[in-house]
Amino acid sequence: MAVVLRLRRTGRKNLPCFRIIATDSRFPRDGRQLETLGLYDPLRKDPATQVQLDVERAKHWLSVGAKPSDIVASILRKRGITARVPKRRVRASRSAPTKARARRDATRAARATSKAARLFESRKRRRAAKKAVAAAGAEKKAE
């Protein structure tokens, strides 16, 4: 389950208010949530009352791998919480040869050559059969 920290819209038309929530990334914006972490009211003028946040719970969710949305990450930065981004694993280059890849390529090459050889042999047999039929027809005409 991929947990994200994002905003859930509340309030009414032209008076937005948001809840900062932890939720599964597959859930809709205003759908099911795992936990409410705080409130964000962008219409309040005082920056101190604009955001109410449970800092400990936000740190907990970040520590277990939750990814904040851009706006939530900005709110957390203003509160002094850095969203720890896990390091991405570097994949091995596709061009870098590995034992398994070399073995697979050798098997494919062997199959391709054996298939080509089989086709060549069958063509040779067909040509020989056609020549034999033509030779038999020529002998019949000569009689």
What is the percent of helical residues? 40-55%
Approximate strand percentage: 15-25%
- Assembly type of the chains comes to single chain
Global geometry: rod-shaped
The ordered string of helix (H) and strand (E) elements is: EEEHEHEHH
Q: Please describe the biggest sheet, giving its number of strands, its sense, and whether it closes into a barrel.
A: 5 strands, mixed
Straight-line distance between termini: 87 Å
Strand order of the largest sheet: 4-3-2-1-5
Mean pLDDT: 83
- Total strands: 5
Structural class: alpha+beta
Radius of gyration: 35 Å
Enumerate the spans where pLDDT stays under 50 for 5 or more consecutive residues.
none
Number of helices: 4
Index terms:
143 residues; five-stranded mixed β-sheet
Structure description:
- With 143 residues, the chain is of the alpha+beta class.
- The protein is 46% helix and 22% strand.
- It has helices spanning 47-50, 55-63, 70-78, 99-142; strands spanning 3-12, 15-24, 35-40, 51-53, 67-68.
- The chain has a 5-stranded mixed sheet with strand order 4-3-2-1-5.
- Strand 1 and strand 2 form a beta hairpin.
